[in-house]
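Before drawing any conclusions, I looked closely at one protein's amino acid sequence and its C-alpha cells, quoted below without any editing.
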Amino acid sequence: MKKILCYGDSNTYGYNPADSSRFDEETRWTALLQNNLADGYEVIEEGACDRTAFVDNDKGFLFSAQRHFPKLLAKTNSVDILVFALGTNDMQFKYDISFGAVERGLENLISSAKSKFKKIIIIPPVVLSDNVLSGFFNFQFDGTSIVKSKKIGKIYRHIARVYDCKIFDINKFAQPSDADGLHYDSAAHKLIADKLSELIRNI
C-alpha cells in the first residue's frame, strides 16, 4: 500500500469559508483524494488552520512547520508521497516576510523532506483575491499580502526544479471563495482532488 502525507494549512484541513466549519469527508479534497485513489493508497491528513511554514507561530509548536515538520519527519516511516501545501499564512501582514526568507525557508523544509520521501508534490500558496480585504480574515491580510501571493509561486517552482519535485498549482484552475478570498469552496475541493488524483497516478 502506498502512503500519501498531505501536510498543509487550513485549505488542507478543509476549512469551510461559508461558516468556519470543517468540510466533511464527502467534501474536503484530502478525503476525496482517498476516495478517488481507493484501494492501494492511504491518505494521511495533516492539515492545521493558521499553520505557518517559515515563521514562528505564536499559537505553538503544531502551527509552526519549521519546528513541527522536522519532528514529524523523524517519526514518519514508509510514506511514498509528500503533498506539501504551506505558505499562505506566512503572508499575513504581521509577519512582514521577505521573498528571501520564503525561499530559504522552503528550501530548508524541502531539502530535509527529500531524505525521507520518494516523491514530493509542492502546492504553491493560494493567490489571494481582493475579497480578503473585506472578509473575515481582513485583520490578518492586506494589500501587500495579495501582491506577495501573486509573486510567491515563482519561488515554489524554482525550488521544485532544484529538488526534482512535482509542482501542483491550484491557482491555474481554481480561485478562493468570494466569501473570504482565501479558502476554497466545495466545488474547488472536488477539482483539486480530481486533478491531484490524476497527477499521483501518473507518478
